[in-house]
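Supplementary Methods. Inverse-folding protocol.

Structures were first reduced to a discrete structure-token string of length 104. This string, shown here, constituted the complete conditioning input.
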């Protein structure tokens, strides 16, 4: 997605909200509503994830990957803490929320 597409996407959907008529590849987050997402199996290092109430994290490292699951180490965007002691296990078919515009 180039910069112009990102700007148009942001204007159309706002920060992380998605139009209520589109439900494909979306996840409903508490405090936000439906947001576009991606499959956890498609996450890469440095991808950003949106959680409930708008909490943001960055994929710091992919620790392990099996046929069905992926384990990731996250870095909190709010305080910069890296959660190395407890990798998060996500099923590859799970949809995780993504910010409307990619963060730097």
């Amino acid at each position: 997605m180039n910069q112009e597409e990102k700007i148009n996407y942001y204007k159309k959907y706002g920060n992380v909200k998605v139009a209520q008529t589109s439900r494909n590849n979306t996840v409903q987050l508490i405090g936000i509503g439906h947001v576009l997402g991606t499959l956890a199996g498609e996450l890469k290092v440095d991808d950003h994830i949106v959680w409930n109430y708008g909490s943001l994290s960055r994929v710091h490292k992919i620790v392990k990957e099996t046929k069905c699951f992926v384990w990731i180490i996250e870095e909190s965007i709010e305080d910069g803490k890296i959660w190395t002691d407890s990798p998060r296990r996500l099923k590859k078919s799970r949809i995780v929320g993504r910010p409307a515009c990619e963060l730097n």
